[in-house]
Amino acid sequence: MEKYSRWSAAFALVLATAAWGGLFHVGKLALTNLDPFWFTLIRYTGAAALLLVILYSRGEVRWQLLRQHWVRLLYYGILGYGMFGILVFVGLDHSVPSHGAVIMATMPVTTLFLRWAFERQRPQWWAWGVVSLTIVGVVLVSGVLSAPTASGGHTATIYGDLVALFGTLGWVTYTRGQGKLPQLSVIEYTAFTAVLALPALFLLAVLATMIGWAHQPSVDNLVHVAPAMAYIVVVATVLAALAFNKGVRQLGATQGIVFINFVPVSALAISAFRGSMPHAMEIAGTLLVVCALLIQARLTRPRPA
């Protein structure tokens, strides 16, 4: 039964990360009509509504848990849905989908160092090699070492990639937060954090609009992105978040987040399928990141008793 549970958790994590690989491509299209602030607000408004429907369909909602832990849930919701959701797509607006997917793949390494900082669990010797491989891979994918062409057709995406990299800290913290609230089910943790984050996302969108960082979308903009947002809300947000949190709940944050390494693989596969073949540097960088994370997965796998 335990072996079946681990396999089902792994399958759920693979589904989630495959959906996120598509998210970067669909999200890039949506950003032509929505800025990252309003995009994130609309995305999680739809996601929160759908999550509440799922929660109510399961029976009585334990609102007392939300009231009891609302401060911690708000904190994780803002970091996971706000910081991660906005900054990753701000970065994507200045980068390309395959780069954003590789940036997400650095989160297992980030998790190791956050555990070192906050839990005093120092990374083992091999972690430094994993970090080195990951950094080299991200540098290759970002194009920072590539010189622009004379026509200006190829430029480095380092700014967008660094913004997205910083944004991933939010999702790592959100993932680790689930272990701090074991009394909540997967659907409760996912739904409550999304609901509590909405007011903050709304205020951020309004503030960004007032200072000129964002632009309130028109009805035409919303109609144009409706098909893309349907995929983003239903598949890449609600279903992916539930599947990811289910896998993390069963395998733990350190093991579960390693599956993020499938995101760049699926994103590059989608790029190739759409006829946009990745450059040699992008492929090499992606392989380095994936190899580093597979090494980490192998070395951190629980040993049988």
What characterizes the major β-sheet? none
Rg (CA only) = 19 Å
| Total separate domains | 1
Strand content: under 5%
Number of helices: 13
Regions with pLDDT < 50 over 5+ consecutive residues? 147-154
Silhouette: globular
Distance between the termini: 16 Å
Give a count of the beta strands, DSSP E runs of length 2 or more: 0
Average predicted local confidence, pLDDT: 81
Counting helices, strands and paired strands, the structural category is mainly alpha
Helix content: over 70%
How do the helices and strands follow one another from N- to C-terminus?
HHHHHHHHHHHHH
Task: Describe the protein.
The chain is mainly alpha-helical and 305 residues long. The protein has one domain (2-299). The chain has helices at 2-30, 36-57, 63-68, 70-93, 97-104, 107-119, 125-142, 158-177, 186-210, 219-251, 253-256, 262-273, 280-299. Helix 4 runs antiparallel to helix 8 (158-177) and helix 5 (97-104) runs antiparallel to helix 12 (262-273). It is globular and about 45 Å long.
